[in-house]
Amino acid sequence: MSPSPSAGQPPVAARTAYAERLDLPWWLWLVGLVAAALLAVEIWMGGSGVRAWLPFAVLLPATAAGLWWLGRIRVAVADGELRVDDAWLPVRFVADVVPLDAAGRREVLGVGADPLAFVVQRPWIGGAVQVVLDDPADPTPFWVVSTRHPVEFAEAVLAARDALPLTDRTAGEPG
Asked: Which residues pair with 94 in a beta bridge?
């Protein structure tokens, strides 16, 4: 759900400044499917009839569907919004964006992590960004989102925020 354009302003054409799918690397697909095949062989164990083909017919497609589901998340910066899967954030509420490497992500999500933070992290992706919010109506202090290109992602969010007219950028601030 995205906000509608203001009255008197023409709708902005859909522009995507950054887009990425957080899919699994090929080797995780290989490991998952091999593990499912080994489990199917263990269940089969030389049986005949339904027991010969059912484990393969069920486990391999179910594993492939599960691996696809794990890599379905998309992140994007488009039309003045930060979109992460089905969540979206107008960039006017972004105070700052910090690119994080694996160690920085561990620190932000570690023992002292804020329980109100919005987190979408994938362990097979090393980088992330921390999006610090400036919305007095939202108790969420920041978002942490996995990305393979943290610097480019951070630059895209900040560029989208800075492209807004100054009145839109200060709309979330208390007057």
From this structure: 133
CB count in 10 Å sphere of residue 107: 14
For strands 94-100 and 81-84, give the pairing. Answer: unpaired
For residue 116, the tally of other CB atoms under 10 A from its CB is 10
Q: What is the pTM of this model?
A: 0.75
Token pair of 38 as six digits: 């080994």
Q: Per-residue confidence of the chain (175 residues) as pLDDT tens digits?
A: 444 444 444 344 456 789 999 999 999 999 999 999 999 999 888 778 887 889 999 999 999 999 999 999 999 999 889 999 999 999 999 999 999 999 999 999 988 888 999 999 999 999 999 999 998 888 999 999 999 999 999 999 999 999 887 765 555 554 4
